[in-house]
Amino acid sequence: MHRSFQAQPITTKLILVAKVDRLDSAEIVTNRWLARLGAGEVKGMIDTKMQAALNEQLNAEYYSSYLYLSMAAYFDSLNLKGFSSWMRVQSQEEHAHSLKFFDYINERGGRVSLSAIEGPPTEWESPLAVFEATAAHEAKVTGLVNKLVDLAIELSDHASNNFLQWFVAEQVEEEASVDEVVQQLKLIGNDTHALFMIDRELGARVFVPLATEA
Ligand SMILES: [Fe+2]
Ligand SMILES: [Fe+2]
Fold it and tell me: How many CA atoms lie within 13 A of 64 on its CB side?
């Protein structure tokens, strides 16, 4: 005798009951957890000093993103579309860096805290002045990343040290690519034809989203 594979009818009521049950238990767990948090029992896995420093760096990366967007606007005002596009991509990269810190703080059981982003400059003297300012800014960021690594080592926070090594390598790359443009701009001097050649070259850069771990 063949048995029928016809699905048993499930009433909407049953589904609703199951959902409410799940919600109830989730609520109980959350309430218990909040109560323990209030009592100071639940501690983040990350050191508070490190958490504060990572949040500061998250803000610094946002500032970088804002700064480069301001530089993109400056290049737009000069009708240098390739330079502007390059800066916009740079801005997107810095935003992605901020989110990398955001995710890491959360991953470590920390608390992300966003603070005001300083307003960037809006005017520069020349394309060269912009790239020199970019180089100086990246050197400053490298210093901040190095200080974070120092703190991770001081706290024996190997996970943060490992996380930060990605930024150490990224800074080497960024400083080198910015310096390349600084050198090119120094070389061409006031040659506008060469400037438009560089503009075209820089315009080819595209934003590549950061690889996400599986
Ligand atoms: Fe960055
Ligand atoms: Fe950067």
Answer: 29
**How far does residue 141's CA lie from ligand 2's centre (Å)?**
7
Q: Are 87 and 64 in contact (CB under 8 A)?
A: no
Residues of the chain with pLDDT under 70: 1-44, 212-214
The model carries a pTM of 0.79
Q: How far apart are the first and last CA of the chain?
A: 48
Compute the distance from residue 99 Cα to the ligand 2 centre, in Å. Answer: 13
CB-proximal residues (5 Å) to ion ligand 2: 174
CA distance 60 to 98: 8
Q: What is the pLDDT of residues 72-105, one digit of tens each?
A: 999 999 999 999 999 999 999 999 999 999 999 9
